[in-house]
Specification:
6 strands, 188 residues, Nucleotide Exchange Factor Grpe, Chain A, domain 2, 3 helices
Length: 188
Amino acid sequence: MQQDKNNNYDEEFIEEEELDNQQEIEEEEEQTEHIDKEEIIKDLECKIQEKEQRLLRLQADFDNYKKRVLKEKNDIYKYAAEELVNALLPVVDNFERALDSLKGNEESNDGYIQGVEMVFQQFTQVLKKEGVEEIPALGETFDPNVHHAVAQENKKDYEDNTIIDVLQKGYKLKDKVIRPSMVRVCIH
């Protein structure tokens, strides 16, 4: 009987030991499973952050694109008349030349001169309305952004870098130089 008790005791001990082992294994599996879940969660969080960053960059790029397109569109509208104005500027030059040549014989051409002057004034008013301005030059300090020096001359009556003669008037369309003034500049 003692032996039966010992056998029972051994069996119980073995069963307990197996149960303990099984519990340890289950705990290890739970820990491993818990660690795996944490790693998966961390991976997913990293991927979410990467996607958010990418989305923010794409949104910023799109905003920049919209701003650039809007600016280009505004520039197109703003300078739409540039080609037409460039084509009309030689006409203005010829009008001025015609008026200058007629003024030499004023007595015989008074009515004609007045008519040409009226047409010229009307024409220049239309250009002004479209944003065309003459670039001031005569007596001004030379500015290479708006003037084109084609000759230099040493004159004591003028300061250095002063424009002493305008060979061809320059014009701006709104704030853009569409034709620089061709000038002669005083150099000491």
